[in-house]
Amino acid sequence: MIKHINENEFEREVLNEDKLVVVDFFATWCGPCKMLASILEEIQEELKEVKIVKIDIDKNPNSASKYKVRNIPTIKIFKNGEEVKTNVGFAPKEALISMIEKA
To answer: What global pTM score does this model have?
Structure first.
């Protein structure tokens, strides 16, 4: 199950983690975001060592602004609290897994 976080939890859930964290910046009204959600659920099942969280940009505009999220869906991968990879727009499962593995 992918955890939904808010701005107050971002530091604890993402920046202070010592494992790879995939952050899905999304909005409830976004069609491609909904398609990506089921893919991320599958990836979370397959890659147990990776933490995946979601943050709603409409409810958490400061985080979206801070991480320069201008289009959604945006996936950002953090390693040891540092942003290491970004993907903007919908991506197929294989591409996302490849991106995660390279991080």
So the answer is: 0.96
